[in-house]
Amino acid sequence: MPLRRHLLIFALLLVAWPAWAFEPFAISELTIATAGGPHKFAIELALSDAQMEQGLMFRHSLAPDAGMLFDFRMPTPVMMWMKNTFIPLDMVFLDARGQVIDIHERAVPLSTDTIAVKTPARYVIELNGGTVARVGIKLGDQVTSPAIK
Questions:
Q1: Residues 6+ apart with CB under 8 A from 50
Q2: Which phi and psi angles does 86 have, rounded to 5°?
Q3: Rounded to an integer, what distance in angstroms lies between the CA atom of residue 138 and that of residue 36?
Q4: What angle do CA 112, 147, 29 make, to 5 degrees?
Q5: Are 105 and 133 contacting, i.e. CB atoms less than 8 angstroms apart?
Q6: pLDDT tens column, 127-139
Q7: Over 80: is that where the pLDDT of 4 sits?
Q8: How far is residue 35's CA from residue 62's CA, in Å, rounded to a whole number?
Q9: Who has greater pLDDT, 57 or 66?
Q10: CA-wise closest residue to 18 among 68, 67, 53, 70
């Protein structure tokens, strides 16, 4: 009887679990060329709508040299928030060529305030809060990655 109850609970969890929870993120690398030199990051790729909706939500940590790249497929007015995101993040907005066009530092965990880019962006990189200041990322810096076409 206890085994059957556990299986039933497991089955109910599978049905109730959001679909994006089963979609893994591909991994790539990314380099940001700053005045202080290049900085390399291991990034997860948020490419599908479900992955972009999930982002880094529900995570309690992120390696110092890790992040996530969102690809909106074309320049668009990007708006993001920190709902269900437990770690502070820096958001680096890029144009279609991978050039930094806007930066939002230290987004507040769990905030539902909208973070909007000033001009349409094709890509957004989310990094640990404080990374922008630590490595000296500035407007105009160039980002290269196999994921940036």
A1: 19, 20, 23
A2: -90, -10
A3: 11
A4: 90
A5: yes
A6: 999 999 999 999 9
A7: no
A8: 25
A9: 66
A10: 53
pLDDT tens, residue by residue, 5-50: 555 555 545 444 554 455 789 999 999 999 999 999 999 999 988 8
> How far is it, in rounded angstroms, from Cα 127 to Cα 92?
8
DSSP string for 122-149: EEEEEEETTHHHHHT--TT-EEE-TT--
Whose structure tokens read 């993040």? 89
Query: Tokens for 87?
Result: 């770690």
Tokens of 3: 């085994």
- The whole-angstrom separation of Cα 97 and Cα 77 is 16
pTM here is 0.84
Q: What is the CA radius of gyration of the chain?
A: 17
User: Could you say which DSSP state residue 20 is in?
Assistant: G
What are the tokens at 125? 């990189």
Nearest to 105 by CA among 60, 137, 70: 137
38: number of Cβ within 10 Å:
11
β-strands 115-116, 79-80 pairing = antiparallel
